[in-house]
Amino acid sequence: MSGSPFEWIDEQARARRRAGLVRTLRPRPADSTLLDLAGNDYLGLARHPEVTEAAASAARAWGAGATGSRLVSGSTELHAELERELAEFCGFESALVFSSGYAANLAAVTALAPHGSLVVSDAGNHASLIDGCRLARGTTQVVAHADPDAVRKALGTHAGPAVVVSDTVFSVDGDAAPLTGLAAACRESGAALLVDDAHGLGVLGDGGRGAPHAVGLSGAPDVVTTVTLSKSLGSQGGAVLGPAHVIDHLVNAARTFIFDTGLAPAAAGAALAALRVLRREPERATRARAVATTLHERLTAEGLEAVRPDAAVVSVRAPSAERAVRWAADCREAGLAVGCFRPPSVPDGISRLRLTARADLTDGQLDRAVRLIIEARR
User: Fold this and answer.
1) What is the mean pLDDT of residues 295-303?
2) Within the chain, what is the greatest distance between any pair of CA atoms?
3) How far, in Å, CA of 133 to CA of 177, rounded?
4) HEC profile for the chain?
């Protein structure tokens, strides 16, 4: 008699325990006493009264769910309004809202990389971009991290359609991609540039308009960007922004748009309200960057190894996966929530604490966070 068909799962679980890589869910209460440097609420808008009231109002008006795919019954006036304002704010011709940033990335990569095309992907890209490359019918070539010359070399091996795919701000270390150099490499060979601005929107660019806007690439006919609504905008969902004919193509070809239930109206309403708060209060973007810089300066002054942040993510390296887990746990016990990134989530195999700066952190809270991180490390 054969054993369980899932014995291999138990063996993988044992291997994870031996390596100290077990992940567990930790449900948080509605009112936590923890100082949060783990979430991605960069602008402090997830609990902003205008944002939460917009979510509640949208749920009352449109119902709890979208009720169907965007092409059937899942598009509301809120979705259309959000798309118009997102495109205008970020400087693009058109936008399309998805149920998540992950779905937006899958859609953009797969729909823009048909059979016979080449996808050039940065080695440090987010998992959603990597999965999009795996699902695309084109051929993917992974190149060295943040290296326009490596991109240029890869593009030189292909004569057909091509698209270069990169994060604008990489989620592990918070370093920015060389967007100007990538765009130049693309234009030399007629390739498109697709960038994921999940960690740039709301933090970089004039008033938080994003990394492409900051370097003059927004609205370009050969540039497409994806964003998430779940970080700086404090809501849920994602979007693709770009030329109108590209967005029309996604409506007709992107499987994660055609076959997925639309974004819940409450999330669309909340994201729209958050976008309007950001437009009215652009200083939130400046504050988020300033908090990140201060965290980096003060932690490195104490001898910790941290990557200089280009946006709102501060990465502090740990000696090992086990030490990273213990460090994060000690921070939590002292009242501070921090992210803990370990293999296989990190492409270089180096474990670290991942801190997210927030525009709504007071100077006193910032002092406390630095003190707790240093004490827990000791």
Assistant:
1) 97
2) 68
3) 18
4) CCCCCCHHHHHHHHHHHHHCCCCCCCCCCCCCCCEEECCCCCCCCCCCHHHHHHHHHHHHHHCCCCCCECCCCCCCHHHHHHHHHHHHHHCCCEEEEECCHHHHHHHHHHHCCCCCCEEEEECCCCHHHHHHHHHCCCEEEEECCCCHHHHHHHHCCCCCCEEEEEECECCCCCCECCHHHHHHHHHHHCCEEEEECCCCCCCCCHHHCCHHHHCCCCCCCCEEEEEECCCCCCCCCEEEEECHHHHHHHHHHCHHHHCCECCCHHHHHHHHHHHHHHHHCCHHHHHHHHHHHHHHHHHHHCCCCEECCCCCEEEEECCCHHHHHHHHHHHHHCCEEEEEECCCCCCCCCCEEEEECCCCCCHHHHHHHHHHHHHHHC
Amino acid residing at 100: S
Q: Which two tokens stand for residue 152?
A: 């240029």
The closest of 39, 240, 209 to 129, measured between CA atoms, is 240
Instruction: Give the gyration radius of the chain's Cα atoms.
Output: 21
Q: How far apart are CA 315 and CA 329, in angstroms?
A: 17
Token pair in block for residue 328: 């994060």
Q: Mind listing the pLDDT tens digit for each residue in 240-254?
A: 999 999 999 999 999
In angstroms, the Cα distances linking 238 to 140, 201, 231 are: 24, 11, 10
Report the distance separating Cα 215 and Cα 192, nearest Å: 16
- Paired tokens of 85: 């304002």
Tokens 């809120």: give the residue.
Answer: 78
Q: How many residues does the chain have?
A: 378
Q: Is this model's pTM higher than 0.85 or not? A: yes
Q: CA separation (Å) from 168 to 63, 69, 148, 309?
A: 35, 29, 13, 13
pLDDT confidence of 345, banded at 50, 70, 90?
A: confident
Asked if the bond preceding 347 is cis, omega within 30° of 0, the reply is no
Distance CA 181, CA 174 (A): 18
